[in-house]
Amino acid sequence: xxxxxxxxSCFLPIPGVKSLWRPEYGAYMIEGTPGKPYGGLLAHxxxxxxxxxxxxxxxxxxxxxxxxxxSITSFPRLGCPRFTFPPAVPTPDDEACAxxxxxxxxxxxxxxxxxxxxxxxxxxxxxxxKVSINLPIYPDRDTKTPVAGSIPSHPSHxxxxxxxxxxxxxxxxxxxxxxxxxxxxxxxxxxxPMCPIMLALTAASPAYRGFLTDVDCRWNVxxxxxxxxxxxxxxxxxxxxxxxRIYKSRYDSIDxxxxxxxxxxxxxxxxxxxTLYKRLREGDIDHLLAQHIAHLFIRDSVSLFSEKVHQxxxxxxxxxxxxxxxxxxxxxxxxxxxxxxxxxxxxxRPCEAQLTDFENAAIVCFVVLxxxxxxxxxxxFLIPISKVDxxxxxxxxxxxxxxxxxxxxxxxxxxxxxxxxxxGAANASASQAEQRQNGTADDAATSEAPADEYExxxxxxxxxxxxxxxxxxxxxxxxxxxxxxDADTHCTIQQYLKLIQKRASGELMTTASWIRQQVVSHPEYxxxxxxxxxxxxxxxxxxxxxxxxxxxxxxxxxxxxxxxxTDNIPAAIEKHLTKRC
Length: 581
Description:
Layout: E1 2-8, E2 19-23, E3 30-34, H1 48-60, H2 114-127, E4 133-136, E5 157-160, H3 164-167, E6 172-177, H4 181-191, H5 194-201, E7 207-208, E8 211-212, H6 219-225, E9 251-252, H7 274-282, H8 287-296, H9 318-324, E10 328-329, E11 331-334, E12 345-348, H10 357-377, H11 385-394, H12 400-403, E13 406-409, H13 430-438, E14 454-457, H14 459-464, H15 472-481, H16 487-505, H17 511-520, H18 533-547, H19 554-557, H20 571-580
Parallel strand pairs: 1-3, 1-6, 9-10
Antiparallel strand pairs: 2-3, 4-5, 6-12, 7-8, 11-12, 13-14
Helix pairs in contact: 1-10, 5-11, 7-8, 10-15, 10-16
């Protein structure tokens, strides 16, 4: 299993390095990234899939016989007896254990770096109890209630009690290099309404702890798995020992836009550290960015090593990154590292991992192309944050890509002009400051977003268009029509876009729907929502044959899949690029 990050930037490559690898939370996981940033030319879209394929082969070559690497979002029997090899048994009563889970043994946490077990222990201890993840069971004919292992308050839910159930999932993430801070803020805001859309479109995780659930995505599982808020912070008890009532887990959707155009859509109460906010404003940081940082810092550190306590904050950003990197949100705004040529970046984080390199590359290229179109056509996707939050919950429901409707901007082709109220709250009154401190104030601009700017649409309508709404793929094709694209790259991109369009329309299944279908049609399935070991094995065996190209799967991928992906861009383009550098 691997989590891929596509990095798009203009930096010079590191010669000879095609892949980079890092350990991840699960002892069975690894994170892979390209060895160098993908370039900014359209021809570079044709190397993404080839690089993913290379990385898969590189890992596979290191594995012993009968072990395989697979890009799946969630192992269906994670937390079941004997789900690890060698087998490990949970020890919930052992105070020395990090998770103390009833289902997830510490042996399943990567042992080579102290960060992962430290996070697990600290989140549990800060919360004052084990995390509690509860997903509704898929209601089949013979489903038993209460569900085995459930808690009394949620008898019809699959219960999980450890960080590993969330951080043991895999995903597909992208990081974009922006030209400057303004462009980074624009991309951060404009991609935010796309997060729930892409989460539903890439849905790939309907099974947890050996049960089929009534959800298709991992997001709420991870959110609950690292929810370190105390009872006071969750609003279950009056504030006495803690400073803030915090409305979301530290792993969740974003709470505010950063660009002036987005300010009027910041319609949810934003809890922030008032002292830090004032300090940032005094340092000439504008209101929108100051409140963003002050909101991140309402969280405590959950992993800090002794050698990192004393730092020169004028030269090192470790203290900032300690908090920034443990606010796991749908989007991440990444300032330049000190003493580095790296600039302002934006990370897009919602997508689930797909079975094949073709699918994962299609998602990467679609999102990257969308950023090009957003900037070139000055598209406007902004809707109120509250509507994005609503979309995030709906996007995780079973079959959401076909059955749910999502709030989306009606007219996306006219972005508001720059010059919103970047300093709008600079002169907030004392009462407003007190309200912010208590999380009851709304720091949005005084002009609210008109309700008739957005409406409910299906994902098919958003992606493929309807009436006067052009659709995102047609806009991408319009953009590509004005560009000079080599034949192979054009062929590859069109296959990727067709996959996206057909997933949106329902002509092709999402990975979650395909997994669900495989489980319920298996001979061992008893219509009780339970996934047996044999059922799980046959599912993964078939998934491996599909990812290796041994088995065709037209219901998931379509017919005649033959992208022209290659390891390198055409020599003539490479030569021209070298001359320019």
